[in-house]
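note to self — DONT lose this again. spent like an hour looking for the file last time. sequence + predicted structure for the chain T wanted, 326 res
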Amino acid sequence: MTKNIGVLTSGGDSSGMNATIRAVVRTGIYHGCKVFGIHKGFDGLISNNITEMTVGSVGGIICQGGTILQTARSKRFMEYEGRKEAFENLKKHEIDSLIVIGGDGSFHGLHELIREFGIQGIGLPGTIDNDLYGTEFTIGFDTAVNTALEAINKIRDTASSHSRIFIVEVMGRHAGYIAIYSAIASGAEEVFIPETNEDIQAVCDRIQKGQDRGKLSSIIVVAEGDEMGGAFAVRDRMIKINGHWDIRVSILGHIQRGGAPSAIDSLIGSRLGYESVLAVLNNKTDIMVGYMGLDNDVSNVPLKETWEKRKIIRDDWKKMASVLAI
């Protein structure tokens, strides 16, 4: 069965999106489908910014960060009239299947489009936060962790040279995966994540204990969505407890989104892009195709479950981070 497939990237960009686009296009064409690139997310769908893609149009992009289709967050698509315009443009190009690479907000939009107009739709998890239920890793997460790790390792050199405490803020509004992974991998002394409530006094006591036995510096990793309010709020509360500490803050910000994808993200993007076309050809719809490991089958999770069910950081990760930082 041949299909006309549309593909777009939505929400925040993440490394590996281009590998995913490439896999969708080439797998679709291999199976005799036409594949259309929709530029600038759902806004591009509403404004009819749609072009047919070829094998050559995705050549050389697998190692590039960002997304060649560009991305945006669309206020118009949140309204029924905007979604109706989007559907009319799909019909103009005879696109009967839509693959959306993005996060939970993008999946909400896709789900509504499927529910209201009966199109076939597949979601692929493209977000650095790794916060979508039903997938072990999201596209871009591994690259973001490695970017954070490289930065933390460099900051530690300065922290050691000046006998300072550095608080490093990483991305993660609702999920602490980047924070906990980069903290463990870098040997950080403490980590603050949205999933747990930290006792700031206990944190300060542990840092003081380390200093008492000769430790010259400490690294604290904070997820931006931590309940204390981020890195500067953590610093201010620590200074209230011990005003003699030299505490500096470094916010990594959007550098975590960009850059060439890691091998893992290129592999995940390629696998999920390939599998999404197979899902289309097998008449699946209203699902996210998730990654369950390189040698495992992919998951097919109803789109609603990706935001209705919460992905949980296992307690032993937090325990391990605490034990290894002694």
